[in-house]
Design brief:
Layout (H helix, E strand, L loop, with lengths): L3 E5 L3 H13 L3 E5 L2 H10 L4 E5 L7 H11 L5 E6 L3 H9 L4 E5 L3 H31 L10 H14 L5 E4 L6 H10 L8 E5 L5 H9 E2 L11 E2 L1 H4 L4 E5 L6 H13 L1 E2 L8 E2 L3 E6 L3 H6 L5 H7 L2 E4 L10 H15 L6 E2 L1 H9 L5 H15 L4 E2 L6 H5 L16 H15 L4 H8 L3 H10 L8
Parallel strand pairs: 1-2, 1-3, 3-4, 4-5, 6-13, 6-14, 7-10, 10-13, 15-16
Antiparallel strand pairs: 8-9, 11-12
Length: about 450
């Protein structure tokens, strides 16, 4: 059905004409010659659109509009008017009418106006439904866990979500820092605005700056047109800075300006731009230690650390593991369209004994693999990787590196490999890594990789 429409006109012939015409277009049409009856119908039925004549003896279309809007402020309404009453029609639009049609009208004209109106209403409803779905998908209840640490985390996060304060989320890789950030946004007054995210560790300094703040045409080679930065794109919403500890001092200065003055300056421009964003930052680094070592600005740290949230590692909340396992089994059985599966007691014991250095992300990957490899309706020990069963993580850089390595451990191993390949020549290593020299020096210091140039 294209939509449900109520036609209100004191001339029954006009009501009949509109009903015949719109029914042929696939609309469900109801008509009435009385404004008071129209109000009664709208109190018990929902209409995608109401079309009403402005000049009616019992109740004018303008009065009808005001009364309907009082009870249903989001109700779409189109008024029909003779040429002499166009001023009244304009007044009706000021009162909230969506559009007006001048009598006598062309059939194609009114069809187009109605089609646009109903389509707009459908889009509005769909948008509202999607926003409600997003709120549900990213609600705090979807962050699985009943341990004391997780309950306290969710309570505090729910409290800060209704404020506009800056939040710093701490926790190891794989604990779900991005999920908490999305839940805070979804529960905030900014939920209707954008949620923009960037991983500061994934980009070299020069690229990170242009991604964050945008650039002007001609700012550098390849800047053939202006580009908005992510800070501007997050205007009216939330900007999530993941791995904020990996930013350089130069980037940190600009982030401090965003926090303090709510302004950014695109690369190659001198004119500041005001932005209305809420910043949520996340890190798995020890920022206090980085501040002492001079790697992270103390003023930015204190501005970010207004409301600190800590997500416990999975090994710190073993009671939550069965809940997470059941959640992931159900999730991947449904996603892969396989019959529901259960976990054998022996398999659960293996999972409980493992240290989970990769945290919830590693557990999720493990369960997804087990669901796909399991042949029966029960997941058993043999469905898990040997390393997990033996409880020995895979060695990449050190014996403490997890079997499913973190992004940080992979980066450290790769930098170490490139430095060996280039015999410690930092300029050559930076070129091979695709980063600038300052970024390489910072990462070498961060990972404590000492290699003298030869």
């Amino acid at each position: 059905m294209a939509g449900k429409i109520l036609v209100v006109d004191d001339e029954k012939s006009m009501c009949d004409f509109m009903e015949i015409m719109l029914s042929k277009e696939g609309y469900e049409v109801e008509t009435t010659v009385s404004g008071s009856e129209a109000i009664q119908r709208t109190s018990s039925s929902k209409y995608d659109l109401i079309i009403a004549d402005l000049m009616m003896p019992e109740m004018s279309g303008l009065d009808l509009l005001k009364k309907i809007k009082k009870g249903r402020p989001n109700q779409d309404m189109i008024v029909m008017t003779a040429f002499a009453s166009v001023d009244t029609a304009i007044e009706a639009m000021r009162e909230g009418a969506l559009d007006y049609i001048t009598k006598p009208f062309k059939v194609d004209e009114i069809k187009l106006v109605i089609e646009k109106s109903v389509s707009r209403q459908k889009l509005t409803e769909e948008n509202s439904r999607l926003k409600q779905q997003l709120k549900k998908d990213f609600s705090f209840s979807n962050f699985i866990g009943q341990s004391e640490g997780i309950i306290n985390l969710k309570k505090l996060a729910a409290k800060v979500s209704v404020t506009d304060s800056t939040v710093l989320i701490r926790g190891e890789s794989g604990t779900g820092k991005d999920l908490i950030a999305k839940a805070i946004h979804a529960a905030s007054e900014r939920a209707s605005g954008p949620f923009v995210t960037i991983n500061c560790a994934a980009l070299p300094e020069t690229l990170l700056e242009s991604e964050l703040f945008g650039y002007k045409k001609g700012a550098f080679t390849g800047a053939i047109k202006d580009k908005d930065g992510l800070c501007k794109m997050a205007h009216g919403g939330t900007f999530f800075l993941d791995e904020v500890g990996n930013t350089t001092p130069a980037i940190q200065v600009k982030l401090l300006r965003v926090l303090e003055d709510k302004i950014i300056t695109p690369v190659g421009d001198t004119k500041p731009i005001e932005v209305d964003v809420r910043l949520i930052a996340a890190t798995n680094a020890d920022l206090e230690e980085d501040v002492k070592a001079g790697r992270f600005r103390s003023d930015l740290f204190y501005r970010l650390n207004v409301i600190p949230l800590y997500i416990p590692a999975l090994r710190e909340r073993p009671d939550d593991l069965p809940l997470l396992v059941n959640h992931f089994i159900k999730k991947y059985c449904e996603r892969n369209k396989v019959d529901p599966k259960t976990l054998s007691p022996g398999a659960l014991e293996v999972l409980n004994k493992y240290n989970w250095p990769g945290n919830v992300r590693e557990l999720e990957n493990c369960i997804e693999r087990a669901v796909l490899f399991s042949r029966g309706d029960e997941i058993v020990v043999d469905d898990f990787p040997t390393k997990l069963v033996e409880g020995t993580p895979q060695t990449i850089v050190s014996n403490e590196t997890p079997e499913t390595p973190t992004l940080e451990s992979i980066e450290k191993a790769y930098i170490y490999y490139i430095m060996n390949q280039t015999k410690g020549k930092k300029a050559k290593a930076a070129k091979l890594l695709g980063i600038d020299n300052s970024t390489l020096y910072r990462k070498l210091e961060r990972y404590k990789i000492q290699e003298e140039e030869k």
